[in-house]
What we know:
Elements: H1 11-14, E1 23-27, H2 31-37, H3 42-63, E2 67-74, H4 82-105, E3 109-113, H5 121-133, E4 141-148, H6 150-166, H7 177-183, E5 197-200, E6 219-222, H8 232-244
Parallel strand pairs: 1-2, 1-5, 2-4, 3-4, 5-6
Bound molecules: farnesyl diphosphate (FPP).
Farnesyl diphosphate binds near residues 30 and 77.
Amino acid sequence: MFKNTEDNHQLTNKLDPNNIPAHVAIIMDGNGRWAQKRHLPRIAGHKRGMETVKTITKVASDMGVKVLTLYAFSTENWKRPHDEVSYLMGLPVKFFNDFIPDLIKNNVQVRVMGLIDQLPAQTQKAVNDAIKDTEDCTGMVLNFALNYGSRLDITMAVQSIGRQVASGTLDPEKIDDQTISDHLMTGFLGQLADPDLLIRTSGEERISNFLLWQIAYSELVFTDVLWPDFDRVVFEEMMLEYQRRDRRFGGIKTSK
Ligand code: FPP
């Protein structure tokens, strides 16, 4: 668990450039508490959280992260008050409106996973335009989980596999890990589908229906810092913690 220790300015120099996690996934939590602490409406926290998304996208891309997956809206978030949901649905419109030129300049490709066709029309348009505008970018993939839930993801994958079995195009005996990975919403990422590092902000230590299959061997790192306060320094501290971990994937440490 990390605190934001403002005193650490030289972290980038301590990071091993050969051990940057290829896929980083983030559960961006604490926007509401950030706002409440300041006696502001919750949406002020989401607004500020959107600025953090811009900062961390640039930092991650500069560090050499290949995929940054951000949990922006879950299938359970529809339970929030109507005004808050409306505001959250407007954020991608604002975000892409402001930030597409920077994303293109930084060669960042936008992708979105989740039930996009259930989103309001203007949100769908913003998302689809962003995907199209950045489709030729070959650098980091900025992958938003929007109206995403991992149980939904797994359920849809099972349905799709079931249809192939029923139509006779897939032998059930041939179904393996890779078949399932390929059918999940992260399937388009190929070998990069599984996060190496999963971060959750705000002091909560749970997964909240995010990438349940894909995080089987991810390193999990938590911080007390609320998402609107998350910055380059905290991110680098978490990357350093990742680099201290000994990843064995169920095997034993091999001598170098
Ligand atoms: C969780 O904080 C945050 C969310 C449900 C929304 C996350 C969205 C953003 C950070 C902005 C996304 C930007 C784009 C471009 C889509 P919370 O509200 O649950 O915080 P709390 O636990 O303190 O109440």
